[in-house]
Write a structure and sequence with these properties.
- The longest helix has 17 residues, at 164-180.
- The chain starts with a strand and ends with a strand.
- The chain has helices at 41-48, 92-102, 109-118, 134-146, 164-180, 190-193; strands at residues 2-12, 15-26, 29-34, 56-63, 66-67, 77-80, 152-156, 182-186, 198-201.
- By secondary structure, the chain is an alpha/beta fold.
- It has one domain (2-201): Rossmann fold, CATH 3.40.50.
- Helices cover 31% and strands 28% of the residues.
- The protein has a five-stranded parallel sheet, with helices on both faces.
- The structure holds adenosine-5'-triphosphate.
- Adenosine-5'-triphosphate binds at residues 12, 17, 35, 37-43.
- Adenosine-5'-triphosphate binds next to helix 1.
- Keywords: ATP-binding, Nucleotide-binding, Transport.
- GO terms for molecular function: ATP binding; ATP hydrolysis activity.
- InterPro entries: AAA+_ATPase (IPR003593), ABC_transporter-like_ATP-bd (IPR003439), ABC_Transporter_VariousFunc (IPR051782), P-loop_NTPase (IPR027417).
Length: 204
């Protein structure tokens, strides 16, 4: 699997946020997007995930040399980010079932059980997400992003709201993920940059 960004430019009106961002990342490697607050990290992640169109430039996903169509990209990616909302009125299990149905996933209960255990959410499956703390919600986002074993995992602000134990669990997962798949993180944290084989700086 390969993710290629070709001369990505993004403007909001006259405001130029991204100027000519290009890179390539392959399975078995990782990339970090870094830059000051407001420099365009989240904008770039959204463009890479096909959630926002670039003003100019291209995002290409290739699998065994074949280009994946835009409409199919979601099957290959998992995304964790502050703007990714869980359904607050639904329980954790209902959120998980919703994501599973969207991805046509079957027989996922054992995998979810292990991940709920790992993220210390076991026993809280039937609680509405609105009763979860922000750190618990962040943990649940990781579970929803990872349940279909995505080839590319995007994490915008990996540590967001997590305690030390949560960060360690996430780090183990990210280290494991980038061994054979693609990891893209957006971060301002110097420690997070150590996870990356390549660093892209956005902004000035
Ligand atoms: N939909 C939008 N319309 C207009 N301007 C936007 C829009 N989205 C983002 N921007 C602007 O683009 C710039 C980059 O925003 P972005 O959220 O990508 O930054 P960031 O690097 O992720 O910031 P932070 O580190 O604070 O999360 C900001 O100046 C922001 O105000």
């Amino acid at each position: 699997m390969e993710l290629i960004a070709e001369k990505i430019v993004k403007r909001f009106g006259n405001f130029l946020v991204l100027r000519n961002i290009s890179f390539q990342v392959k399975s078995g490697s990782s990339i970090a997007i870094t830059g000051a607050n407001g420099s365009g990290k989240t904008t770039l992640v959204k463009i890479l995930c096909n959630l926002m169109a670039p003003t100019r430039g291209k995002v290409i996903y290739r699998n065994n040399g074949n280009v994946i169509e835009r409409g199919e990209i979601y099957r290959y990616i998992g995304l964790v980010g502050p703007y990714l909302q869980l359904y607050q009125e639904l329980t954790a299990q209902e959120n998980i079932d919703f994501f599973a149905r969207m991805r046509n996933l079957k027989n996922y209960s054992e995998k979810i059980r292990k991940m709920m255990e790992l993220f210390k959410l076991a026993g809280r499956e039937d609680d509405p997400v609105k009763t979860y703390s922000s750190g618990m919600q962040q943990r649940l986002k990781y579970i929803c992003a990872l349940m279909h074993d995505p080839e590319i995992l995007f994490v915008d602000e990996p540590r967001s709201n997590l305690d030390q134990e949560g960060i360690q669990a996430v780090y183990r997962i990210l280290e494991e993920h980038k061994k054979e798949k693609i990891l893209v993180i957006s971060t301002n944290d110097q420690d997070d940059l150590l996870l990356a084989d390549q660093i892209i700086k956005v902004g000035n």
